[in-house]
Amino acid sequence: MKPAMSDASCELLGGFFTIFAHVTRMRILCALQQEPRTVTEIANRARLSVTNTSQHLRLMRDRGAVIAEKHAQSVYYRIADPRFAQAMLLIREALLERMQQKSKVVSAPAPRRGRNTFLQSA
After folding, report:
1. In sequence order, what are the residues at sequence separation of 6 or more whose Cβ sits closer than 8 angstroms to the Cβ of residue 77?
2. Cα angle: 19, vertex 23, 25; to 5 degrees
3. Among the listed residues 91, 77, 92, 81, the one whose alpha carbon sits nearest the alpha carbon of residue 35
């Protein structure tokens, strides 16, 4: 069993997870899953303005989620660590499984009430 995380670790994760907590930033990360891209390419894939994309990328770079690399006259952004993309996929998979389990419970037929139910015997 792994020891519980320290308060400092929880604060570190909480600050980083603000990246995942914003839909726009998630769309940017999804646009970067396959390969590095320029701001314009990211904006087009994420259906955002270039200005809005740049603002979010600056925050994401400051938090360590993405890295900017200059090639010739273009700046390409990429996810800073492949484990961040893996974490996104892992969380997505867990959420989809939970949703499927929840829908099975909701769509399961109600138990049939026979003569010996609790309410009838009370």
Report:
1. 32, 36, 37, 38, 39, 42, 57, 61, 66, 67, 68, 69
2. 45
3. 77
pTM: predicted TM-score of the whole model, two decimal places? 0.77
Which of the four pLDDT bands, split at 50, 70 and 90, describes residue 109? low
Q: How far is CA 112 from the centre of its chain?
A: 40
State the amino acid at position 108 in one-letter form.
A
79 contacts 42 by C-beta, under 8 angstroms: no
Class level of CATH domain 11-90: mainly alpha
Do the Cβ atoms of 67 and 61 come closer than 8 Å?
yes
Residue 5 is predicted with a pLDDT of 87
Angle ∠(43,22,41) on CA atoms, nearest 5? 10
HSE, side-chain direction, 13 A CA sphere, residue 98: 6
